[in-house]
Amino acid sequence: MLTINLAIFIPFLAAIFIPFINNRFKQTHIGWFILVVPVVLFIALLRFIPTIARGETYINSSQWIPSYGIEFTTYLDGLSMIFGLLITGIGSLVILYSIYYLSTKESLTHFYIYLLLFMGAMLGVIFSDNLMALYVFWELTSISSFLLIAFWYHRKQSRYGAKKSLLITVSGGFAMLASFIMIYAMTGTLSIREIASSIDSISDHALFIPALILLLIGAFTKSAQFPFHIWLPDAMEAPTPVSAYLHSATMVKAGIYLVARFTPIFGGGDLWFWLVSGVGIITLFVGSFFAVKQTDLKALLAYSTVSQLGMIMSMLGFGSAALHAGYSPKSVVYTQAVFAALFHLVNHSTFKGALFMVIGIIDLQMGTRDIRRLGGLISLMPVSFTIAMIGSFSMAGLPPFNGFLSKEMFFTSALNVSNLDIFSLNTWGTLFSVIAWGASVFTFVYCMIIVFKTFFGEYKGRHHENKQFEPPIGMLISPIILGLFVVGIFFFPNLVGKYLIYPALGHIFPSMTLQLDAYSITAWHGFNTELMMTIAIVLVGGFLYLTLHRWRGVYRLFPETRSFDAVYNHSLSGMEKGSAKLTKLYMTGFLRDYLVYIYLFLVAVTGGVFIYTGAFSFDLSQDSPVSSYEWIFVVIILTAGFAILFAKSRLTAILLNGVIGFSIAFFFVLFRAPDLALTQTIIETVTTVLFLLCFYFLPEWKKESSPPSSKITNMLISVAVGLIFIVIGLSVNSGNLFEQVSLFFEDADELAGGNNIVNAILGDFRAFDTMLEVVVLFIGGIGVYSILKLKKWKGEENIEGD
Amino acid sequence: MKETNDVILHMVTKVVVFIILTLAIYLFIAGHNQPGGGFISGLVLSSAFVLLYLSFDVETVNSGLPLNFVVVAAVGVFLSVTTGFLAIFNGKSFLTHTFTSKTFPLIGKTEMGTVTLFEAGVSLAVVGVVVTIILGISEDV
Amino acid sequence: MESVIIILAGILVMIATYLFLSRNLIRIILGSALLSHAVHLLLMAMGGLKKGGPPLLGEELKTYTDALPQALILTAIVINFAVTAIFLVLAYRTYQKTGTDNLNALRGFKDE
């Protein structure tokens, strides 16, 4: 049996094999092979539906980083089931669609690797039980989204959109990580299930509120909620299959998932309620209001996605009121809001996916998706028109499409919230219904724009004889299937309700016993307020659509320069300029300056610590006596050292360096280190040869041309460094804390079979060091060899630029 | 290039190189109990080669001594790393050396161990690297 | 003796630092050579000087000098050789390519 652990990794594994498959079957579109992955996963998930519907869960656990308690635990329950089916189901349709959308001339391997990467990451997000695993997958979806948006990276707008989405979603993810860490600090566990069960103990914790807010920032950035919604319209630069998949059906719903998943943990308080439903309802309105203004069909859909996500988000907020009220017959009304949210989530994926695909078709066939240049396509593309109409009318909330059902339920929940007497809703609650209604009017308007401006009116394109306008049937299959779902769900809503959404509800409200009967969906409720609202939307919306050209001027009140986009652009360029300035301030490009920083830091920090702690001590009692010939060599070394500074020719300097080296070799003899003396002598010889060889090619020694002031600075710095060195050395020497360790090596003969302790250390006791040293030496040799031999490297002349 | 008369240098080098080589081998073997060892013998060996290259020219030496010193260095590194793995096959931890001492006629009590192989690797690596560096620079005109 | 050696090493560090701060590549390489000498002396002094015989067993000696610093220095000497070699070759190649060994003239691109 396929475990969920494995399911997450199948897309990643498949991604690895893509290049090999592509090389083997160059003639076939690689998408056909990729299609197998989501289809198999979808079928595998379908098999779980009966047991999940009975309320069972599947848990798989394996160790990941056991020392930190990070396990890779996957968790399949009703909630993740919905998302899992969406990811694999829509994924299959999108890949099928992309086979026709992307020609084999595009770099398909990249595209499908990114897409599979996303699919695996998204499955990881929804199935992970461990917060850290969830975070990793969460960021992975951001990264794969970035790569997919920038798929046509030669376009400037693609790069801009990709960067924007990455910056916003990843910083949101970072806020979420902070929240997770706070949750860990509060509960001591990273498992979502365990956190949910220990939630009562943490609601008074000081970190509870910050964790809540940071978590919501993560969710809001990902789900493009106001004011973070600005990345989604720019993300539309991605290929249309990507927009349909990531930016309407799955990735942007990760935030919804997060809010739903954490409702049992954080929900129930007024802050959660106001933030989630407030931000949701504002997003709903802003999204639909600005969607009307758009002329690019994809941008219009992007804003409409923003608005629909806001709607789902606000319903989740409404539903959290049930946790505050506790279980009672009254609070069932609020759990119905969550039910509606999840129902709309499914519906939105179907009709929005279909719409995106149709618009992709129009874009591909007509070469534009600007509604000012489109029109009259109804006779040319009747199938596409039908699908677009189904999708748009469903989005507008008209029967007989699934959007009607969820919109009615949305109104029900908004109206119910107004009746609530908690969270000071009796004063402000009515606003929710008003805004919801107003936003729905604009939704109606832009849905009409999609249908009528594109397909009716006069054909504005160039006339082609015998041009095939309707795309190949394979490209139409996916939107047709989605369109069938849109209609099908309207007629059999309870099938979805009972097997998909009701099981999920139990995991959002674990403390309540929910009766299935309360969650049946019916299209006809009689002439109640909700139906009146819908009728009013059609009337007012229709009027507004017809008079659109008269009130369009309203949008001039919201100039581009004052939007959140402008804020984003300004702050980004400001940060770039600021950091460039700051960097230029200290990164001068002169080695000397960097060395000065390092030395000053060394002197200040170590010197400061020495003064602060008074650690300096000077004790001569342990010193061995100094004999006269040792003094002679000290003087020789000092003289040679200072003479290097004043050496007129470089030959002198090298010879002086040699003098110092050989004198040190002599010291080694005096200090009872025969091995060292031997090595030093030979190394010094070889080094001198090396210096001489190099100098043969290097220029004559020039007189130091620095100004006297910098010479004095250099002198001061070097004296300070030398003094610090001496002070540390003397203090350490007089404060000898330990016996010498070499007594340990006295049994070298028995242990290593050698009488020379130094060599026993090198060859046996610390042989690992010696081995690595040999490796380092070898690397050095290779470095020298390659610097010298490989100079005629390809393109070197271009790099050097002279 | 002007022909120079280096007869004395050549003659001396021919003799001295063998003395240096002997010294290197002595240091290598003595390293166990007396001052010496892999590094030093490697350095002495390489100084012998450097002397050869200095007194004769590179082509002459290469014709008589067709050695690629990068390969020598690589062999050295390989040798010292693989001796480490010998211990693993013995069931001991990496780089544990084993040794036995036997008494041979004429030579007397001699200790033999894998450490000698390890040191040989070190020695070869040092020779290879040093000669590579010096040859590399001098050839690059 | 230890204190004398430490002060000697300190003065060598001083000279090396001064050489490091100069503009000439060769001076910098010489500075690194001097710095390594200083470090060897310091290591040596840290283990105590002339506290016994050479660290060779079987020489009928009661005490030995600390063998560990010697092993460290032996390693350091050889590594230093490689470092100096790389430095020299880099300097040589830099001069060959750019025609200067003055660091101030070597400053790269404007935006670097």
Summarize the structure in short.
The complex is a heterotrimer of chains A (about 800), B (about 140) and C (about 110). Chain B has about 140 residues and is mainly alpha-helical.
Q: What distance lies between the first and last C-alpha atoms of chain A, to the nearest angstrom? A: 65 Å
Strand arrangement across the biggest beta sheet of chain A: 1-2
Biggest sheet of chain B: strands side by side, in what order?
A: 1-2
Number of strands of chain A: 2
Strand content of chain A: under 5%
Q: Low-confidence parts of chain A, pLDDT < 50 over ≥5 residues?
A: 794-802
Please tally the helical runs of chain A, counting DSSP H or I stretches of 4 or more residues. Answer: 32
Arithmetic mean pLDDT of chain A: 84
Strand content of chain B: 5-15%
Instruction: Compute the number of structural domains of chain B.
Output: 1
Instruction: Give the class of chain A from helix and strand content and strand pairing.
Output: mainly alpha
Kindly report the oligomeric state of this protein.
heterotrimer
**What is the helix fraction of residues of chain A, given as a range?**
over 70%
Amino- and carboxy-terminal Cα gap of chain B: 13 Å
Q: What Rg of chain B do the Cα atoms give? A: 18 Å
Instruction: Using a beta-carbon cutoff below 8 angstroms, give the protein chain pair with the largest interface and the number of residues from each chain.
Output: A-C, 97 and 88 residues
How many strands of chain B? 2
Q: What key phrases describe this protein's structure?
A:
heterotrimer; A: 802 residues; mainly alpha; two-stranded antiparallel sheet; 32 helices; disordered C terminus; C: 112 residues; Helix Hairpins; 3 helices; 65% helix
How would you sum up this structure, described in words?
The complex is a heterotrimer of chains A (802), B (141) and C (112). With 802 residues, chain A is mostly helical. Chain A has helices spanning 4-24, 31-46, 49-53, 78-101, 108-127, 131-149, 156-187, 192-197, 208-222, 231-234, 240-249, 254-266, 270-291, 297-325, 332-366, 382-396, 402-418, 425-455, 473-491, 493-508, 529-546, 548-551, 564-586, 591-613, 628-646, 650-670, 674-697, 708-734, 748-752, 757-765, 767-789, 796-800, and strands spanning 58-65, 70-76. The radius of gyration of chain A is 36 Å and the shape is elongated. The two termini of chain A are 65 Å apart. In chain B, 68% of the residues lie in helices and 9% in strands. Chain B has a two-stranded antiparallel ribbon with strand order 1-2. The longest helix of chain B is centred in the C-terminal third of the chain and has 26 residues, at 114-139. Chain B is flat and about 60 Å long. Chain C has a single domain, classed as Helix Hairpins, CATH 1.10.287. Chain C is built from three helices and no strands. Chain C has helices spanning 2-20, 25-46, 67-98. Chain C is elongated and about 60 Å long. The termini of chain C are far apart. The model of chain C has no long low-confidence stretch (mean pLDDT 82). At the A-C interface, helix 24, helix 25, helix 26, helix 27 and helix 28 of A face helix 1, helix 2 and helix 3 of C.
